[in-house]
TrEMBL record:
Pfam families: Aminotran_1_2 (PF00155), GntR (PF00392). PANTHER family: HTH-TYPE TRANSCRIPTIONAL REGULATORY PROTEIN GABR (PTHR46577:SF1). It comes from Nocardioides daeguensis. This is PLP-dependent aminotransferase family protein. One of its GO terms (molecular function) is transaminase activity. It comes from the Bacteria. Keywords: Aminotransferase, DNA-binding, Transcription, Transcription regulation, Transferase. InterPro entries: Aminotransferase_I/II_large, HTH_trans_reg/aminotransferase, Tscrpt_reg_HTH_GntR. Residues 12-80 form the HTH gntR-type domain. The keyword Cell inner membrane does not apply.
Length: 443
């Protein structure tokens, strides 16, 4: 079997991926002049694709002169194909770097059927006139208005465009805030979001551990508390109403800001999402939203709603550092929001997650305990650490990446696995679950 691997999440057509990989095998010497290529029907069956995909790749390689067809006897690597000199070519099993299929907490599922709007967004960017100088560091006014409307409608957060700021994602939003907060410790949930911990530490501040499922009663000496109330990351819980009110009361008493990381609240499939914590107290809570779950992490775009009393310092810092997200990306998001792309993608991803979550739960629950309710695009499972490490190694061996719960913990002594289901295709998810179940059953 040819050592090639096609990735259905890769936006390039499968035929193009196959042609690229065969070219690389010839150039690397793994396929040598005169080697016979497998029959298209067999290769298609091995790769789980239609025969036309393989034929399209072979046609391309024939046209480029990498392969040649011999009447009645199949397809061969062509004489003129330029791999390394024959003397250095060894017949050995080539080592092929296979990218891992990500079953992590952060890779979302994106419905390809909405690509037309996506393309329209970038076409609009290509004909729009870019600002001549540094643009408004707060973000494009049109985009801020669209986001303000959406925050009101979907998160119960009544804000106007004047209060919304565009950022380069959640981490950038946190960095901007830290730039204007007193240089005191920041409390972060434990287990909690690792990037937030790293960002706080990089700012030279101490990170205090907030036990993730316990009420917050003490923020003395902290300038902020970083929390994920809509979907505790990674244990999954929705912060109960009493704990929300308690957290706000503690923050008021100890004069700390609550930083609300609202990363994936759109993706509840059992009940409607709870309104944002910031809707309870706009002056105590700084809200961080992101495009990374509902649209695409690689956009590197997010939005913040900052308490009014911090806004002047916040804006001055951003104007000084020119730290605003790129204009083309903001401009594209205007189209994506205006033309309903975001709503359509969120709706279809929610349907996919709602269908996949019970599959994951049914497969893994005989072997491990769920850490909390499953929502969004991942589930968290409690297991002894040594077992989790072995299961993760077995998954990696089979080409899948799952995360260790221990990696999210600082003083918390929890262990297990965080298993995402947004990244894989349906078939990949089935295979990954088989691998995980087999590894768990072996233990
Ligand atoms: C808890 C949490 N918050 C926020 C984000 C998104 O961060 P960013 O907007 O920087 O991509 C993630 C992504 O995985 C996350 O897990």
């Amino acid at each position: 079997m040819l050592p090639v691997r096609l990735d259905r999440t890769d936006p390039r057509p499968l035929g193009t991926q196959l042609a690229d990989q065969v070219r690389r095998l010839v150039l690397g010497g793994a396929l040598a002049r005169g080697d016979r290529m497998p029959a298209t029907r067999r290769l298609a069956a091995d790769l789980g694709v239609s025969r036309s995909v393989v034929e399209q790749a072979f046609d391309q390689l024939l046209a480029e002169g990498w392969l040649e067809a011999r009447q009645g006897s199949g397809t061969w690597v062509a004489g003129g194909a330029s791999g390394p000199p024959a003397a250095t070519r060894r017949r050995r099993t080539p080592v092929v770097e296979r990218p891992l299929v990500m079953l992590d907490a952060g890779t979302p599922w994106i419905d390809p059927k909405h690509r037309a709007v996506w393309r329209r967004a970038w076409r609009e960017v290509s004909v729009a006139t870019a600002p001549q100088g540094y643009d408004d560091p707060r973000g494009l006014p049109e985009l801020r208005a669209l986001l303000a409307e959406r925050l009101g409608r979907t998160r119960g957060l009544a804000v106007d465009a004047e209060q919304v700021r565009l950022t380069g994602g959640t981490g950038a939003g946190l960095r901007h805030l830290l730039a204007v907060l007193p240089r005191e410790a920041v409390a972060v949930e434990d287990p909690g979001y690792r990037a937030a911990v790293a960002t706080v530490r990089e700012s030279g501040r101490e990170v205090r551990d907030l036990p993730a499922l316990e009420p917050v009663t003490d923020l003395a000496g902290c300038s902020a508390a970083y929390v994920t109330p809509a979907h505790q990351h990674p244990l999954g819980r929705v912060m109960p109403a009493a704990d929300r009110l308690g957290l706000l009361a503690t923050a008021r008493r100890d004069d700390a800001i609550v930083v609300e990381d609202d990363y994936d609240s759109e993706f509840r499939y059992d009940v409607a999402p709870v309104p944002a914590l910031a809707s309870l107290d706009r002056e105590r809570v700084a809200y961080l939203g992101t495009a990374s779950k509902a649209i695409l992490p690689s956009l590197r775009l997010g939005w913040s709603v900052v308490p009014d009393r911090l806004l002047d310092a916040y804006d001055a810092h951003r104007a000084l550092t020119h730290d605003a997200p790129p204009w083309p990306v903001q401009r594209a998001l205007v189209t994506l929001l205006r033309d309903g792309y975001v709503e359509a993608v969120v709706r279809s991803a929610r349907r996919v997650y709602a269908e996949r979550a019970p599959r994951v739960v049914a497969a893994l629950s005989p072997y491990a305990e769920l850490a909390g309710p499953v929502a969004g695009m991942y589930s968290t499972w409690l297991l002894p650490h040594a077992r989790a490490v072995r299961v993760r190694a077995a998954a990696e061996e089979a080409g899948f990446r799952v995360n260790l719960l221990r990696d999210y913990c600082r003083t918390a002594r929890l262990s297990g696995l965080v298993v995402g289901f947004g990244g894989p295709s349906d078939d990949e998810l089935d295979r990954a679950l088989e691998v995980l179940v087999a590894a768990l059953a072996r233990l």
